[in-house]
Amino acid sequence: MDQTMKDIFASAVTPAGYSDIEWKARVELALCYRMVDYYGWTTQVYNHISYRIPGTEHLLINAFGLLYSEITPSNLVKIDFDGNKVDDSPYPINKAGSVIHTALHKGRPDVHCVMHTHNPDVQAVSALKCGFMPLYQEAFMFYDRIGYHDFEGIVLDESEQQRLVDSLGPTNHTLMLNNHGVVTTGPDVAWAFMRMYQIIQGCQVQLKVMASGSELLQASEEAMIKTREQFEGGDAQGGAEVRLPEWPAYYRLMSRLDPNWIR
Fold first, then answer.
1. Which residues contact residue 53 at a Cβ distance below 8 angstroms, ignoring those fewer than 6 apart?
2. Nearest to 91 by CA among 127, 64, 51, 123
3. Cα 120 to Cα 183: distance, rounded to the nearest angstrom
4. Model confidence over 44-70: pLDDT tens digits?
5. Are 137 and 231 in contact (CB under 8 A)?
6. φ and ψ at 241, to 5 degrees?
7. What percent of the residues of the chain are helix, what percent strand, and what percent coil, each to the nearest 5?
8. Would you tell me how many other CB atoms lie within 10 Å of the CB of residue 96?
9. Cα separation of 100 and 157, whole Å?
10. Can you give the pTM of this predicted structure?
């Protein structure tokens, strides 16, 4: 967590029944759900974002049936790595979400947040044989960082879990689910969200460029690798007080839109 978010939490009061660590994790994840709703990436009550409570083997995930605009820190559901609820939440969880998310959390211990959407632009690219094409500066962060997974039906069969992990691979942070949608991951919520924002933008640009019918102009592999390393190493955020300055900005935005969202 960056310093700005630490400053925000310094004055916050943790409700009874939660550790400080778990409540902070709940606030971070609830903010992510709210921002997905803000950008219009939702699919009714479906899709999922999960976050591992730091230092535990428990995950937080959305209550199945709630709109993302209804998600609050307290109504997130806590589950274990096998998808079993470990709190007294009255809400169910989406089995497809449990199967996908627990698989990636277990298979990639470095991944603490897993984010999945069915954004239409991403779904369009997921149905293209060429896959995702990084065509501009921000999209180069995905160069050689995307895995692909063939469609096998709605992900309800736990036998598919290892194949999902294998498709993501050991170093990729993004997984294109062919004919389905996309998954982004990160060491925390902010990274997973930032990558989701950029992959959606990247798909939008790709579709526009392909629709133009003009010949594509592609940067060199050397330039794409250099740019990716600038994003991964922090040079791209040079001059910012925090590594991902958009994340505390989103906190401020949501607090203006709904002053009572933390409950």
1. 21, 22, 25, 59, 60, 78
2. 64
3. 14
4. 999 999 999 999 999 999 999 999 999
5. no
6. -75, -25
7. 45, 15, 40
8. 17
9. 10
10. 0.94
